[in-house]
Amino acid sequence: MAVIVNVLMTLAFPKQSLIQGLTDKLNSITRESLTGIRVVRAYNAEDYQNEKFAAANDELTRLNLFVNRLMAILNPIMMGISSGLSVAIYWIGAYVINDAAPIARLPLFSDMIVFMSYAMQVVMGFLLMGALFIVLPRTMVSAKRINQVLDLHSSIQNPAQVQLADENLKGQVEFKDVTFRYAANSEAVIEHVSFKAETGQTVAFIGSIGSGKSTLVNLIPRFYDVSAGEILVDGVNVQDYDFSATAHAGQRVAIVGPTGAGKTTIVNLLMKFYEIDKGSIRIDGVDTKAMTRSEVHDAFSMVLQDTWLFEGTIRDNLIYNQIGISDERMMEASKAVGIHHFIMTLPDGYDTILDDTVTLSVGQKQLLTIARALLKDAPLLILDEATSSVDTRTEELIQKAMDRLMEGRTSFVIAHRLSTIRNADLILVMKDGNIIEQGNYEELMAQGGFYADLYNSQFTEDEAEE
Q1: What is the pLDDT of residue 391?
Q2: DSSP secondary-structure letter at 198?
């Protein structure tokens, strides 16, 4: 029996791994069909999606049938062994009792019944073991997949000696010759970026899609570590990176550039989501490499284009993971961004649960995320194209709320609408992962370079639309 179980397990286990993968694939196809139902219908792609689902489902069904048929062999084998053992015990017992003396037959019969009872207990144990072997392969595969996730280690490691930033963080951010690549053997997303944002300034990032704007901002809170150079927040290095610019405390820094220029990469490096290859990112003069990720993240508030609201009440979303926020302070923040009146029109006000029964517009969701960032009251702020998906009127409301949010904070703004970052203290123009121009609006327009061409072309397009 052990040989049979071993053979069945050897054949079934590899198939169970394939079944789990196909189940994931089937769920993924189902999910994309449901979440993208409008696109599917718009392109009359129902048959195409059905064919994808049918192909994955047929393959999954075929493998499931093979494994189930294979494991189904165990039951008849175990039942056959159980029945055969019972017959053998009774046969041998009857033969022994028949040859025994009449006076000894009753004790022998009793012994046979007791032995039969013990034998059946052993057989039942094997039957239960057989049932266990039926589900064991899938259980082992599932456990292996879970352990693969649990065993993953973050690529962002805290330094052996943590250099703590001042408790009263000013919000000065400096990029020193920062370079970043997602993999050691891949091309650099941003290269040799240097700038400095002073406390309270607004820094705008512009550039084409893929220029590296978001990546640049994500480096500040150390969502990634720079590959070279340094990112300093108040003089503390977040990690190595190769790019140079300084944002002074309180400045508004705008990051602009075409798609793929590296704007998002800059943001990711600021947040220390990645480590830079070389160079440094400094906050208040401290290299962010010498800071823990949690310390870097505490220094930032973020308002993203994707408005992430979590399941729960409006109150829970506004005070998300913050302790000691009073109702008065929460309402003040909501009033400051212009969302308080709408919240009070809801049946339960701030205790309204956000679910399918509560419909919020994109602008209302964005205002809630701005109020959440205002409540965090961090000295550094990241705005990642926060108004790029709303209409002009809603953009005006959101822009007023963001202006209120940026007061007294060092702000980093990624925007495609250049008119929204015209008042930025420092505008970083990115292309192919490099900062090709930097300065304020007047300085860049006077240069007549890439930014001026980009601004004039966008201004002409806006006039044509009007």
Answers
A1: 64
A2: E
Are the beta carbons of 427 and 245 closer than 8 angstroms? no
Q: What is the DSSP letter of 421?
A: G
Task: Give yes or no on whether 173-237 and 252-463 have one common fold.
Answer: yes
* Residue 20 structure tokens: 């789990």
Q: Quickly name the fold that domain 173-237 has.
A: Rossmann fold (3.40.50)
Determine how β-strand 218-225 pairs with β-strand 312-313: unpaired
Is residue 343 a contact partner of residue 350, using CB atoms and an 8 Å limit? yes
- Per-residue pLDDT reduced to its tens digit, 155-213: 666 666 555 555 566 778 888 888 888 777 777 888 888 888 888 888 888 777 777 78
What phi, psi does 224 have (nearest 5°)? -135, 160
Distance CA 27, CA 271 (A): 33
Paired strand residues for 413: 204, 383
Long-range contacts from 435-444, C-beta under 8 angstroms, 24+ separation: 435/193, 435/194, 435/195, 435/243, 435/244, 435/245, 438/195, 438/245
Q: Note whether 69 and 8 are within 8 A (CB).
A: no
Instruction: Give CA–CA dist 60/147, Å, rounded.
Output: 24
pLDDT per position as a tens digit, 304-356: 777 778 778 889 888 887 888 888 999 998 888 888 988 988 888 899 888 76
d(CA 401, CA 416): 19
Is the domain 252-463 a CATH 3.40.50.300 member?
Answer: yes
Beta bridge partners of 430: 435
The DSSP element (H or E) to which 460 belongs, if any, is: helix 450-465
Residue type, 457: S
CA-to-CA distance for 406 and 418, rounded, in angstroms? 17
| Whether the predicted model's global pTM rises above the 0.90 cut | no
CA distance 188 to 229: 13
Question: How many Å apart are CA 253 and CA 439, to the nearest integer?
Answer: 10
Q: Please state, in angstroms and rounded to a whole number, the distance separating the CA atoms of residues 113 and 392.
A: 89
Query: ∠ CA(174), CA(179), CA(181), 5° rounding?
Result: 135
Question: Are 283 and 172 within 8 A, CB to CB?
Answer: yes
E-strand stretches of 127-208: 173-180, 190-206
CATH of 1-148, picked from 1.20.1560.10, 3.40.190.10, 1.20.120.450, 1.10.10.10, is 1.20.1560.10
For the chain, which residues make up each domain, given as ranges? Answer: 1-148, 173-237, 252-463
